[in-house]
Amino acid sequence: MRSALLTLALPLTGCVTATVDEMVFNAPVDGIGDASVVILGRRHASDYETEPDFIECVGDHIAARDKAITVVSELDFINALYPWFEPRTAPLYPEDLEKLMQQAPVAQRLAEMRTQYMIWIDGSTIRTDSAGSMTCGIGPGGAGCFGFGTWGNDSDYEATIWDFTNRAEVGRINATASGQSYMPAVVVPIPIIAPVQGTACDSVGDQLLKFLSSEH
Known about the structure:
Radius of gyration: 21 Å
Number of strands: 7
Oligomer: single chain
Protein backbone atom coordinates (compact mmCIF):
# COMPACT_ATOMS: atom_id res chain seq x y z
CA MET A 1 0.00 0.00 0.00
CA ARG A 2 1.44 3.35 -0.93
CA SER A 3 0.03 6.80 -1.18
CA ALA A 4 1.01 9.94 -3.01
CA LEU A 5 -0.32 13.41 -3.49
CA LEU A 6 0.82 15.42 -6.49
CA THR A 7 -0.15 18.92 -7.55
CA LEU A 8 0.99 20.07 -10.97
CA ALA A 9 0.38 23.47 -12.52
CA LEU A 10 0.84 23.73 -16.27
CA PRO A 11 0.88 27.22 -17.81
CA LEU A 12 0.25 26.72 -21.51
CA THR A 13 0.37 28.93 -24.57
CA GLY A 14 -3.03 29.69 -25.95
CA CYS A 15 -4.25 31.06 -22.61
CA VAL A 16 -4.86 27.70 -20.92
CA THR A 17 -3.89 26.70 -17.39
CA ALA A 18 -4.34 23.23 -15.88
CA THR A 19 -4.01 21.75 -12.41
CA VAL A 20 -3.83 18.03 -11.58
CA ASP A 21 -4.24 16.39 -8.17
CA GLU A 22 -3.47 12.69 -7.81
CA MET A 23 -4.05 10.27 -4.95
CA VAL A 24 -2.77 6.71 -5.46
CA PHE A 25 -3.64 4.10 -2.85
CA ASN A 26 -2.35 0.91 -4.46
CA ALA A 27 -0.85 1.17 -7.93
CA PRO A 28 0.31 -1.91 -9.88
CA VAL A 29 4.10 -2.24 -9.57
CA ASP A 30 4.78 -3.35 -13.17
CA GLY A 31 1.79 -1.88 -14.97
CA ILE A 32 -1.35 -3.86 -15.64
CA GLY A 33 0.31 -6.64 -17.64
CA ASP A 34 -2.12 -8.72 -19.69
CA ALA A 35 -5.18 -7.18 -18.06
CA SER A 36 -7.35 -4.58 -19.76
CA VAL A 37 -8.81 -1.29 -18.59
CA VAL A 38 -12.12 0.34 -19.43
CA ILE A 39 -12.84 4.05 -19.14
CA LEU A 40 -16.45 5.07 -18.56
CA GLY A 41 -18.20 8.41 -18.19
CA ARG A 42 -20.55 9.15 -15.33
CA ARG A 43 -23.92 10.22 -16.72
CA HIS A 44 -26.27 9.94 -13.77
CA ALA A 45 -26.28 13.67 -12.91
CA SER A 46 -29.36 15.65 -13.90
CA ASP A 47 -27.59 18.89 -14.83
CA TYR A 48 -24.74 17.59 -17.02
CA GLU A 49 -23.16 14.46 -18.45
CA THR A 50 -19.53 13.55 -18.96
CA GLU A 51 -18.92 13.97 -22.69
CA PRO A 52 -18.36 10.72 -24.67
CA ASP A 53 -15.70 12.43 -26.80
CA PHE A 54 -13.71 13.26 -23.66
CA ILE A 55 -13.81 9.60 -22.57
CA GLU A 56 -12.63 8.56 -26.04
CA CYS A 57 -9.88 11.18 -25.93
CA VAL A 58 -8.48 9.85 -22.63
CA GLY A 59 -8.59 6.26 -23.92
CA ASP A 60 -6.83 7.22 -27.16
CA HIS A 61 -4.20 9.15 -25.19
CA ILE A 62 -3.36 6.10 -23.06
CA ALA A 63 -3.39 3.63 -25.95
CA ALA A 64 -1.21 5.85 -28.15
CA ARG A 65 1.50 6.27 -25.52
CA ASP A 66 1.65 2.68 -24.30
CA LYS A 67 0.56 0.19 -26.94
CA ALA A 68 0.86 -2.65 -24.40
CA ILE A 69 -2.22 -1.37 -22.57
CA THR A 70 -5.53 -2.73 -23.85
CA VAL A 71 -8.23 -0.08 -23.51
CA VAL A 72 -11.73 -1.49 -23.94
CA SER A 73 -13.95 1.08 -25.64
CA GLU A 74 -16.78 2.50 -23.58
CA LEU A 75 -19.49 1.49 -26.07
CA ASP A 76 -18.18 -2.07 -26.46
CA PHE A 77 -18.02 -2.50 -22.69
CA ILE A 78 -21.52 -1.15 -22.06
CA ASN A 79 -22.99 -3.30 -24.84
CA ALA A 80 -21.19 -6.42 -23.60
CA LEU A 81 -22.46 -5.89 -20.05
CA TYR A 82 -25.93 -4.58 -20.82
CA PRO A 83 -27.87 -3.61 -18.72
CA TRP A 84 -25.53 -3.49 -15.70
CA PHE A 85 -23.64 -0.35 -16.76
CA GLU A 86 -26.47 1.77 -18.05
CA PRO A 87 -26.66 5.17 -16.25
CA ARG A 88 -29.58 4.07 -14.07
CA THR A 89 -28.03 0.74 -13.04
CA ALA A 90 -24.27 1.36 -13.01
CA PRO A 91 -22.51 0.93 -9.64
CA LEU A 92 -21.91 4.21 -7.82
CA TYR A 93 -19.52 2.98 -5.13
CA PRO A 94 -16.74 0.37 -4.95
CA GLU A 95 -18.81 -1.54 -2.38
CA ASP A 96 -21.35 -2.23 -5.14
CA LEU A 97 -18.79 -4.33 -7.03
CA GLU A 98 -19.16 -7.30 -4.70
CA LYS A 99 -22.87 -7.58 -5.46
CA LEU A 100 -22.25 -6.95 -9.15
CA MET A 101 -19.63 -9.70 -9.42
CA GLN A 102 -22.13 -12.19 -8.01
CA GLN A 103 -23.97 -11.90 -11.32
CA ALA A 104 -22.58 -14.82 -13.34
CA PRO A 105 -22.84 -13.08 -16.76
CA VAL A 106 -20.94 -10.07 -15.42
CA ALA A 107 -18.13 -12.13 -13.92
CA GLN A 108 -17.88 -14.23 -17.09
CA ARG A 109 -17.69 -11.28 -19.49
CA LEU A 110 -15.17 -9.42 -17.36
CA ALA A 111 -13.03 -12.57 -17.31
CA GLU A 112 -13.30 -12.89 -21.09
CA MET A 113 -12.18 -9.27 -21.56
CA ARG A 114 -9.51 -9.63 -18.81
CA THR A 115 -10.75 -6.37 -17.33
CA GLN A 116 -9.00 -5.62 -14.07
CA TYR A 117 -9.40 -1.86 -13.79
CA MET A 118 -12.39 0.35 -14.45
CA ILE A 119 -11.95 4.11 -14.50
CA TRP A 120 -14.97 6.30 -13.92
CA ILE A 121 -14.62 9.86 -15.20
CA ASP A 122 -17.05 12.44 -13.86
CA GLY A 123 -17.15 16.05 -15.02
CA SER A 124 -17.68 18.38 -17.94
CA THR A 125 -16.45 21.42 -19.82
CA ILE A 126 -18.62 24.52 -19.59
CA ARG A 127 -18.62 27.97 -21.13
CA THR A 128 -18.18 30.54 -18.38
CA ASP A 129 -18.42 34.02 -19.84
CA SER A 130 -18.32 36.04 -23.02
CA ALA A 131 -17.70 39.65 -23.93
CA GLY A 132 -17.26 41.90 -26.94
CA SER A 133 -19.27 42.42 -30.06
CA MET A 134 -19.02 41.82 -33.77
CA THR A 135 -20.80 43.31 -36.75
CA CYS A 136 -21.02 41.69 -40.16
CA GLY A 137 -22.46 43.21 -43.28
CA ILE A 138 -22.35 43.51 -47.04
CA GLY A 139 -21.25 46.74 -48.66
CA PRO A 140 -20.07 48.02 -52.04
CA GLY A 141 -16.64 46.58 -51.40
CA GLY A 142 -17.96 43.14 -50.42
CA ALA A 143 -18.84 41.34 -47.22
CA GLY A 144 -16.92 41.59 -43.99
CA CYS A 145 -17.00 41.47 -40.20
CA PHE A 146 -15.53 43.88 -37.68
CA GLY A 147 -15.21 43.58 -33.93
CA PHE A 148 -13.71 41.50 -31.18
CA GLY A 149 -15.16 38.73 -29.04
CA THR A 150 -13.85 36.68 -26.17
CA TRP A 151 -15.19 33.79 -24.08
CA GLY A 152 -13.96 31.46 -21.38
CA ASN A 153 -14.21 27.71 -20.83
CA ASP A 154 -13.64 25.68 -17.68
CA SER A 155 -13.04 21.94 -17.52
CA ASP A 156 -13.30 19.94 -14.30
CA TYR A 157 -12.93 16.14 -14.38
CA GLU A 158 -12.36 13.51 -11.72
CA ALA A 159 -11.14 10.01 -12.59
CA THR A 160 -11.72 7.27 -10.03
CA ILE A 161 -9.86 3.98 -10.50
CA TRP A 162 -11.59 0.78 -9.36
CA ASP A 163 -9.91 -2.61 -9.11
CA PHE A 164 -12.27 -5.48 -9.96
CA THR A 165 -9.96 -8.03 -8.33
CA ASN A 166 -9.88 -6.35 -4.92
CA ARG A 167 -13.32 -4.74 -5.26
CA ALA A 168 -11.85 -1.43 -4.16
CA GLU A 169 -10.97 2.08 -5.22
CA VAL A 170 -7.20 2.27 -5.74
CA GLY A 171 -6.66 5.79 -7.02
CA ARG A 172 -8.24 9.12 -7.82
CA ILE A 173 -7.20 11.94 -10.17
CA ASN A 174 -8.70 15.41 -10.48
CA ALA A 175 -7.87 17.68 -13.40
CA THR A 176 -9.07 21.22 -13.98
CA ALA A 177 -8.33 23.50 -16.89
CA SER A 178 -9.46 26.97 -17.80
CA GLY A 179 -8.79 29.18 -20.78
CA GLN A 180 -9.84 32.21 -22.74
CA SER A 181 -10.61 32.11 -26.45
CA TYR A 182 -10.65 35.13 -28.78
CA MET A 183 -12.29 36.07 -32.05
CA PRO A 184 -10.79 39.21 -33.61
CA ALA A 185 -12.35 40.23 -36.89
CA VAL A 186 -11.10 42.69 -39.47
CA VAL A 187 -13.09 41.64 -42.53
CA VAL A 188 -12.55 37.93 -41.74
CA PRO A 189 -13.12 36.50 -38.22
CA ILE A 190 -10.05 34.63 -36.92
CA PRO A 191 -10.86 32.33 -34.01
CA ILE A 192 -8.07 31.76 -31.47
CA ILE A 193 -9.39 28.79 -29.54
CA ALA A 194 -8.02 27.78 -26.15
CA PRO A 195 -7.84 23.94 -26.11
CA VAL A 196 -9.31 23.64 -22.62
CA GLN A 197 -10.94 20.21 -22.91
CA GLY A 198 -7.95 18.80 -24.81
CA THR A 199 -5.59 20.02 -22.09
CA ALA A 200 -7.73 18.36 -19.42
CA CYS A 201 -7.75 15.15 -21.48
CA ASP A 202 -3.94 15.13 -21.74
CA SER A 203 -3.60 15.87 -18.02
CA VAL A 204 -5.88 13.00 -17.00
CA GLY A 205 -4.33 10.64 -19.55
CA ASP A 206 -0.76 11.39 -18.43
CA GLN A 207 -1.58 10.74 -14.77
CA LEU A 208 -3.43 7.50 -15.59
CA LEU A 209 -0.41 6.32 -17.58
CA LYS A 210 1.71 6.73 -14.45
CA PHE A 211 -0.69 4.36 -12.73
CA LEU A 212 -1.25 1.82 -15.51
CA SER A 213 1.92 1.74 -17.57
CA SER A 214 5.11 -0.20 -16.88
CA GLU A 215 6.97 2.39 -18.96
CA HIS A 216 6.41 5.22 -16.48
